[in-house]
Design a protein that fits this description.
Layout: H1 2-17, E1 24-32, E2 35-43, E3 46-49, E4 52-55, H2 57-70, E5 75-82, H3 88-97, E6 105-109, E7 121-131, E8 134-142, H4 150-163, H5 172-203, H6 210-222, H7 231-281
Parallel strand pairs: 5-6
Antiparallel strand pairs: 1-2, 1-5, 3-4, 6-7, 7-8
């Protein structure tokens, strides 16, 4: 999601300005020790003072209050910009960010650059080293891994298919959900068959087979415990989320149909008014 946000930010700015231009923004996410997860980002406003980029602190403060209301468990982790490699200007901007976070991350994307087999995205952390008797800030590359959530994969898959013009074809997500539904349906059928066998053995309709019963017991321990106190709240939450998404889709479809109806009614009303006016002039 962060890479998509930065790419959209740079593309939109290029389209508005008519030429490539560096963009800047903030990174938010979670941190546990040395493990950092960058989950989202937002743009930062700035001004040019004597050829140097100066971030507008008031704008950041306002955005921080907004994202804290939506993502209370996320913190400010660092900043991003576009460019080929860090230079003196990036070091100066990093010093401004250090007033907010003592050890911020720096993510840089090179649009259209980099190796074709790798993403042109580089993550840095800052270290202070003594060079010629002076303390200077140096950027050190950090290894990272890309991770996506299920909602992000579904959204990107549908967006990619809409852009490519394949709206009528079924998406990979739909095929995957269909396969999962078939697998769950088959599992439910097999579990029901095992339950019928156990009931038949209890009633004496079938002979008692110790080996089969041991296998059934081993299988039952592998299945999740559905009556636990932690399952019901999570299950109800997921059901509510799915129902809400379905309701939102229905509302959007109804609004679209209503909008089309209003447009057609307006066109028809204009035509009828034109005919009446022509009849009066005749």
């Amino acid at each position: 999601l962060v890479i998509m946000n930065i790419s959209e930010h740079w593309t939109r700015t290029r389209a508005q300005e008519g030429k490539p231009k560096n963009v800047y923004g903030a990174l938010i996410g979670k941190q546990a020790g040395r493990d950092i997860e960058v989950m989202n980002s937002f743009e930062l406003e700035y001004s040019i003072v004597e050829g140097q980029v100066v971030f507008i602190r008031e704008y950041y403060t306002q955005k921080e209050e907004q994202f804290k209301q939506v993502f209370p468990d996320m913190d400010f982790l660092g900043w991003y910009c576009t460019g080929d490699k860090p230079g003196a200007q990036e070091v100066a901007m990093h010093k401004q960010i250090m007033q907010i976070n003592e050890s911020p991350l720096f993510l840089q994307m090179a649009p259209g650059g980099g190796n074709c087999t790798e993403l042109p995205v580089y993550l840095y952390e800052s270290v202070i080293d003594m060079i010629e008797g002076q303390a200077r800030i140096l950027f050190v590359k950090l290894p990272y891994t890309l991770a996506t959530e299920e909602a992000e994969r579904i959204g990107l898959d549908h967006v990619a298919r809409i852009v490519s013009g394949g709206e009528s074809s079924s998406s990979k997500t739909a095929d995957q959900l269909t396969a999962q539904h078939s697998a769950i349906k088959m599992l439910a059928g097999r579990v029901k068959l095992i339950l019928q066998y156990v009931k038949a053995v209890e009633k004496g309709e079938l002979p008692h087979n110790h080996e089969i019963m041991r296998q059934i017991k081993s299988l039952s321990h592998r299945l999740p415990v559905l009556q636990s106190d932690r399952f019901n709240p999570q299950f109800l939450t997921q059901c509510n989320d799915v129902a809400l998404m379905t309701l939102l889709g229905t509302v959007m479809k109804s609004a679209n149909n209503l909008n089309q109806f209003v447009n057609k009614f307006s066109v028809s009303h204009q035509r009828q008014s034109g005919r009446r006016m022509r009849g009066l002039f005749l």
